[in-house]
Design brief:
Elements lengths: L1 E2 H18 L2 H18 E2 L4 E2 L2 E2 L18 H18 L1
Antiparallel strand pairs: 1-4, 2-3
Helix pairs in contact: 1-2, 1-3
Length: about 90
Amino acid sequence: NKEFWQQAECLVGMLDAYLLFGDARYIDAYENVHRFVMDYNINHEVGEWYPLFDEHNNRLWDYMGHAWKINYHTVRSMIQSEARLKQIVG
């Protein structure tokens, strides 16, 4: 299964790896995860990420939150990704 926080942290991790090693495969991986997040993870009507998907990208939960889901990973990911992307593009 694909959980929202894994996708969020992967975005930052792939950009960090690119900055450390300069290997374009990390940018490719970032772009793949970013596309998944934009196409599937985010409920664009409310601006929140769906929590969980199966291996075929089907939502397992339609609600936006539960007792342990907070904005930490998603907000952190967007802030940190923006900072790293600015470094990459100069």
